[in-house]
Design a protein that fits this description.
By secondary structure, the chain is an alpha/beta fold. It is 39% helix and 17% strand. It is built from ten helices and nine strands.
């Protein structure tokens, strides 16, 4: 069994390919196909900032039982192919996703968008402007804004990527000391450590600089598609109080608390998503 096949439900298959989002950017897309054809919507899955697929194993194992899933690895990840100089803003990350949706989802195909963290923020940024609207959005831990302390901004600006091995332990210390309750959810901290260990420092620096002045607040009132925001009350890194405020600003927003980051990446989250999808489709 290959590494990617370990993310498949029994009988499901996975295809790994590079797709052009623009002349300058090609992204890795993993397509999971269930063992039997169903009438479920196709899922376009936009994972979080520099995240690794490992963190979504339980979710993909459950989804691939009954859903076709297009898992998109965004441009700041090490798997992207970049030609020339490009930006890493929320708008540019979202533009890639819109371009791939146009290629992956036929106009008559029902679909939903599942996003996480920065991927979820990018979805909120372009959601109102999508020509082919999804049935709904399911967004796990979207960031309303990116809070980077002034001192850390200076460090990032001066940081020379080949010395990433020096800065990486400092970031891990900052996360466990100021932004995470490690005792409540050790798995989240371990997952972020693996993510940082696997990050491309050149892309990471450009992406961090591009994100730190962004906010999504003005986009939310214009989104008319149903949105389920999945938060975790004990995940301080993703600021659950901001997610609840985001939900109130969405015309058709619903908030779901899975308590921990591990809960938001679990089979139970998928079951809650299915219930929400059934409600939206029957409305």
């Amino acid at each position: 069994m290959s590494f990617l096949e370990t993310f498949c439900a029994p009988g499901a298959t996975v295809r790994d390919e590079m797709m052009e989002a623009s002349d300058s950017v090609s992204l890795r897309v993993l397509t999971f196909t269930p063992p039997k054809k169903t009438d479920n919507p196709v899922i376009v899955f936009v994972a979080g900032w520099i995240s690794l697929i490992d963190g979504w194993k339980h979710v993909l194992l459950e989804l691939s039982r009954e859903f076709v899933v297009h898992y998109i690895e965004t441009r700041e990840k090490g798997t992207s192919q970049i030609r020339g100089k490009v930006g890493y803003s929320v708008e540019e990350v979202g533009g890639d996703v819109v371009a791939l949706i146009q290629q992956l989802v036929p106009p008559d195909q029902e679909y939903l968008i599942l996003g996480s963290s920065l991927g979820a923020t990018a979805v909120l940024d372009f959601a109102a402007d999508l020509e082919h609207q999804p049935v709904c959005h399911v967004l796990v831990g979207p960031n309303a804004e990116f809070r980077i302390p002034p001192v850390l901004r200076i460090v990032i600006k001066l940081f020379y990527p080949p010395f990433w091995f020096v800065l990486r332990p400092v970031i891990k210390w900052y996360l466990r000391t100021f932004r995470m309750e490690v005792d409540a959810d050790r798995a989240q901290y371990d997952k972020y450590c693996r993510t940082l260990d696997g990050a491309d420092p050149w892309k990471l620096k450009s992406a961090a600089v591009a994100l730190w002045d962004y906010t999504v607040w003005d986009k939310l009132p214009h989104i008319t598609t149903p949105v389920l925001i999945v938060g975790a009350s004990r995940d301080k890194l993703h600021e659950p109080e901001l997610m609840e405020r985001m939900t109130r600003l969405l015309p058709f927003g619903t908030y779901l608390d899975m308590e921990t980051n591990t809960g938001t990446h679990s089979r139970e989250m998928v079951l809650e998503m299915r219930r929400y999808l059934d409600e939206v489709r029957s409305a």
